Amino acid sequence: MITVRAVAFDLDGLMFNTEDIFVRVARDMLAARGKEFTPAIMAAMIGRQWVEAGPAFKRMADLSESLDELLEEKRLRFNALLKTAVATAPGLLRLLDHLEGRGLPRCVATSSRRAYAEGLLTDHHLTMRFQFLLGAEDIARGKPDPEIYLKAANRFGVPVASMLVLEDSPAGVAAGKAAGAFTVAVPHEHSPSAGLDQADLIVPRLDDVRLLTSLKLGPLPSF
Q1: Which of these, 73, 123, 147, 176, is most buried using a 10 Å CB contact count?
Q2: What is the pTM assigned to this prediction?
Q3: How many Cα neighbours within 13 Å face the side chain of 177?
Q4: Per-residue pLDDT tens for 77-122?
């Protein structure tokens, strides 16, 4: 058992159901071209920056358009759904309440761009619940490289071994583990637990009692 002194949250798929929207967009983009969005393509993209995910999408789907064209189409389709189809992940608000009640600092560490991440947090009234945000612009190497989580621990001013990382993708779990953080995975439809077995703990939702009883935080309060 470790004593957690800070918590770093991934964003897409972990805090919000945005991976559902991304899959819908990717499927529609490929269906319009007579192609299929496969689990293998999703696995190659999830948790990674567009600089890596985009080329994988183009190559594996055998697309002729440029990466810039594909990115612009993805943005237009995604943004059209963003305001109405996004919801917070089960247990997120309860977990935040619990961590705040125990005075644990929190950050968001995402492969997505800062403006997008800030927009999501603002729309869901979550900005003030995190001490800081690290996005794609803040790192030179994206997940699975540990850079973003090493930077998070440094900014918190805590040893990385005392930081809890919450992730939903294999790349994110690999980043947390490589950094030396206690890494918890929360699987979902697009990132099953079979691909997250590097994690120190796998739980079905963010307020699962096993998450907090595995750490020196105490049990969640009853509601």
Answers
A1: 176
A2: 0.84
A3: 15
A4: 988 888 788 999 999 999 999 999 888 999 999 999 999 999 999 9
Q: How many CB atoms lie within 10 A of CB 86?
A: 15
Pairing label, strands 163-167, 182-185: parallel
